[in-house]
Design brief:
Rossmann fold, binds 6-O-phosphono-beta-D-fructofuranose, 7-stranded mixed beta sheet, 331 residues, alpha/beta
C-alpha cells in the first residue's frame, strides 16, 4: 500500500516530441487542480528544464485560451541528461527546492521510461499521461496527438491523389511512426491506399510488384503506397528504387510528409481525449494514486503501473490489419 501524500503543489511537464493536444491537456490539468485548491506549476522545456529548475506559473489566465493551439506552451525537449542518474538527481533537487509534491508527465515511450526510473530511484510521486503521434504507448488505445496527425496525413494524401490520378503516377508517401505502423495503417485505410507498408509486417515485395504491374497493365493507373519511415532500407526512397528498377515506365514520385504531421490545431477527438485523460490523471493523483499512467482503453480510463508500461509497445489493432488486407494490400 503506497503512502498517501497530501498534494499542495504539482509540477507538470511535456516531454519528448510535441504533438497537437498538449495544450488541451495542460488546460485540463490546471482546471482540475484549481477545483482542489492545488497549485500547478509548469516546467519549461521538458526534462532539460526540470534539471535546470525552469518553473513557470500555470494558472487559469495562462491556459484559458489554448485548447485549439498546436505545440506546447511549455515547450519540450528530448533530454539526454535525464537518462543519467546525475541528471535525475538534479531534477529531484529542483523539485524539492521548489516544494513540489508530485510531477505529472505528458510523454511518449522514452519519457515514460525515464520517469519510471526516476520515480523508483527516488520514490517521488509521479503520474503519466500518454502522448505521441506514433500511438505506440502500451496501456492506451489512443495516445494524444495520433488522431490529429492521422487527419493531417489523410488531408495531404487526398491532395496527392488528385495529382497522382491526373498524371498516372506512382506516389510513395512516407509517414512518421519511428518503428510503429499506426499512422500508416490508419491513414492508408482512410485514403484507400493501394498498398500499406508497416514495420510490424515483413514486406511482401513480390505482391507489391505484381500489383504495380497490374496497375500499369490496366491503362497506366495511378498508385498510392503509404509507408512508415525506417521501413525497408531507406523508407520511401528505398522503395522507390525497388519500384523504378522493376518498372522504369511507371513515373514514380516520393513525398515525405515529415514534421508537418506533428503540427496544427488538435482535432476534436484529441482535445477530448487530452481533456479526459488529464482530468482523470490529475484527480486521481490528488486523491493519492501515483506511479501509474492514465490510458484510454475501450472507452474507459484505465490506470496502468508505469513499470508495466515502460519498455512495452502497443501492438497494431488486429481488426484494422484484417481490414487493410481486405481493402488494399498490407505488405
Ligand atoms: O515519436 C514521434 C516522432 O514524430 C516520430 O514519429 C519520429 O520518428 C520522431 O518523433 C522524430 O523526432 P524529431 O522531431 O526529434 O526529429
Amino acid at each position: 500500500m503506497k503512502e498517501h501524500i497530501k498534494m499542495k503543489k504539482i509540477a507538470v511537464v511535456t516531454s519528448g516530441g510535441d504533438v497537437p493536444g498538449l495544450n488541451a491537456a495542460l488546460h485540463a490539468v490546471v482546471l482540475t487542480a484549481m477545483k482542489h485548491n492545488v497549485e500547478i506549476i509548469g516546467v519549461n522545456n521538458g526534462y532539460d528544464g526540470l534539471i535546470d529548475g525552469k518553473f513557470t506559473v500555470l494558472d487559469f489566465e495562462r491556459v484559458r485560451n489554448i485548447m485549439d493551439e498546436g505545440g506546447t506552451i511549455l515547450r519540450t525537449s528530448r533530454s539526454k541528461r535525464f537518462t543519467t542518474s546525475e541528471g535525475r538527481r538534479e531534477a529531484l533537487h529542483q523539485l524539492r527546492h521548489g516544494e513540489v509534491d508530485g510531477l505529472i508527465v505528458i510523454g511518449g515511450n522514452g519519457s515514460l521510461q525515464g520517469i519510471e526510473v526516476f520515480a523508483s530511484e527516488h520514490s517521488f510521486p509521479v503520474m503519466a499521461i500518454p502522448k505521441t503521434i506514433d500511438n505506440d504507448v502500451f496501456g492506451t488505445d489512443f495516445a494524444i496527438g495520433f488522431d490529429t496527425a492521422t487527419n493531417t496525413i489523410v488531408e495531404a494524401i487526398d491532395r496527392i491523389k488528385d495529382t497522382a490520378d491526373s498524371t498516372s503516377r506512382l506516389f510513395i508517401v512516407e509517414v512518421m511512426g519511428r518503428s510503429a505502423g499506426f499512422l500508416a495503417l490508419n491513414s492508408g485505410i482512410a485514403v484507400a491506399a493501394d498498398a500499406i507498408v508497416v514495420p510490424e509486417i515483413k514486406p511482401d515485395l513480390e505482391k507489391l510488384l505484381s500489383l504495380a504491374e497490374h496497375n500499369l497493365n490496366v491503362g497506366n493507373r495511378s498508385m498510392i503506397i503509404v509507408i512508415t519511415e525506417n521501413t525497408l532500407t531507406g523508407g520511401a526512397m528505398g522503395l522507390k528504387k525497388i519500384m523504378d528498377d522493376s518498372f522504369p515506365q511507371f513515373d514514380s514520385r516520393v513525398t515525405i510528409l515529415g514534421h508537418i504531421q506533428r503540427g496544427g490545431s488538435p482535432s476534436a477527438f484529441d482535445r477530448t481525449l487530452a481533456s479526459l485523460l488529464s482530468y482523470s490523471a490529475t484527480e486521481a493523483f490528488i486523491k493519492g494514486k501515483h506511479g501509474v499512467m492514465a490510458g484510454y482503453v475501450k472507452g474507459e480510463v484505465i490506470f496502468t503501473p508505469l513499470n508495466q508500461v515502460a519498455g512495452k509497445i502497443n501492438p497494431l489493432n488486429n481488426n484494422l490489419m484484417k481490414l487493410a488486407a481486405e481493402l488494399s494490400i498490407l505488405v
